[in-house]
Amino acid sequence: MVPSFPRNWLVRENPGRIPASFGKFDIGTIALSAVGLAAWTFFPASLATGALLIAGAVFNSVRLARWAGDRTLGDPLVLILHIAFVFAPLGLLLAGLTVLAPGVVPAAAGIHAFAVGAVACMTLAVMTRASLGYTGRELAAGAGTRAIFVAIVIAAILRIAAAMAPGAPILLHVSAALWVTAFVGYAVFFGGMLTRPRRQARN
After folding, report:
1. Is position 202 within any domain?
2. Torsion of CA 129, 133, 135, 136, to 10 degrees
3. What are the residues whose beta carbons fall under 8 Å from the beta carbon of 187, sequence distance 6 or more?
4. What predicted TM-score, i.e. pTM, was given to this entire model?
5. Is residue 201 very low, low, confident or very high in pLDDT (cuts 50, 70, 90)?
6. What is the span of the domain harbouring residue 113?
7. Cα(73)–Cα(168) distance, rounded to whole angstroms?
8. Does pLDDT of 15 surpass 60?
9. How many domains does the chain divide into?
């Protein structure tokens, strides 16, 4: 999805610099990240594991920078894909720091960057886009869609912050409330269109 959807949108709506094509750099980065995460699972205290994870964070950040996300600000449905991916290198970075500085960065910070950040944000991004497309509606983010995107992104940021600051439970509570708001909001804004017949394409 990233960067293919952003590339298609940029070619159609904002010609110019487009995301780099998938190639050897991407394959190598994915492999490096997979090795780092596997090492984190089996050798969570190894300094080599920390180095692999941080290297994965750096290379994935470079991948993200090659995808022209700054040129997608005009379409929240496309922009949210880039924002969701930001949490992947962030999760790798936090996981690496957990290994190298366990007394400073708790393991929960990286885990929640992946779970509440990358996974939840990308899930909502795809759910909203697919719901619009498969029900025959225009691929455009209305006010409700933009609101749930904001809610899930802030929920992810606050959940990571809550892991870093366990003495501030308000962060956890607000994060949980926003997470619920985002997914309930999806049900409210998209439930109706998913239970009605698909709209016919206009000639």
Report:
1. no
2. 140
3. none
4. 0.92
5. low
6. 4-194
7. 33
8. yes
9. 1
